[in-house]
Amino acid sequence: MSLRNSYVVGFLLSIALTFIAYFAVVNDWFDENTLGIIMLLALAQFSVQVVFFLHMGKTSKPTWSDVALYFMIMVVVTIILGSMWIMSNLDYHHGDNSAPQSVEDSIIEDEGFRNDNSYDVHDNSQPHKD
Amino acid sequence: MSEAITKTQEDKTVFGFWIYLMTDCVLFASLFATFIVLRGNTFGGPAGNEIFSMPYVLVETLLLLISSFTCGLGLLAAYRKDKSQTLLWFGATFLLGLAFLGMEINEFSNLVSEGHSWRTSAFLSAFFTLVGTHGLHISIGLGWIAFLMARIRSQGITKINLKRLTLLSLFWHFLDIVWIFIFTIVFLVGEL
Predict the structure, then answer these.
(1) What is the maximum span of chain A, computed from C-alpha positions, in angstroms?
(2) What number is the ipTM of this complex?
């Protein structure tokens, strides 16, 4: 494929992917699957632009530029998915700004778990520090 | 012609610039992570789907996509040593980029004048930081295009100017890729 055709094909594909993602959201084409589908469309768009606009991956052996790209993707995925994971776990254990006791209650309920060695959250007989 | 680009891409300068772009991706990744974590924290202020106009964002996206295409055509013209075509395509890229930036500044100033500034909520702070950082990159890119066009007009397409154009194209395509993720994660997901 000549470079000119590479740009033309890349351009048409990226315009098409943009419109599909846009109307999928605005017209609610896929109900609850929409989030997953537009994420896949964004990844497809990324691949299209890297291949057709940046001309990556055209050599038979990976170049140092390819290696840097793969490393960047690894770091980016770690930062974004890692942050989402850690912060949602923190949210879960912190609760909705409610009292610590009700958070603990909901976690015990949610995980079907009660540790008898720790103090009973329903036992109010323990002396309070205040 | 294909060989010419491959050969240039093996160039150390181009590789160094590529490494810079990859680290810039990490900068954007941390801003994306911040935005994703904070997007629900509206603190009584508006959520994304209450303040974003989707057709407006679609037009911005199309402007940037078309500018990425014209930028590629400009680079091909430069490899053919076709000075007037190079200036024409990069001129188009400049105008499209300027239109994009104008739309974004207009959107920002509308949000602020409606009282939805970055001080309203964690969500809006993260939004302005992420989208504003992209806008800053676009502004720098526009200055770079203007500078290179002036150079090419006076010096013609010399070897050094050709290398600079290659770097500029990488930068511009890269900004387009970052915008695709802003379009998807900020605007499309916000509208769900």
Answers:
(1) 80
(2) 0.89
Chain centroid to CA B169: 11
Q: HSE of A9 in the Cβ direction (CA atoms, 13 Å)? A: 13
Q: B191 vs chain A: nearest CA distance in angstroms?
A: 7
Give me the architecture of the B2-35+50-191 domain, per CATH.
Up-down Bundle (1.20)
Sorted by where each begins, the domain ranges of chain A are 1-55, 59-116
Q: Are the CB atoms for B77 and B59 separated by under 8 Å?
A: no
What residue ranges do the domains of chain B occupy?
2-35+50-191
Beta-carbon separation of A25 and B191 below 8 A: yes
B180-187 mean pLDDT: 96
Q: What is the pLDDT of residues B60-104, one digit of tens each?
A: 999 999 999 999 999 999 999 999 999 999 999 999 999 999 999
Record the pTM: 0.87
Selection from B30, B153, B42 nearest residue B87 by Cα: B153
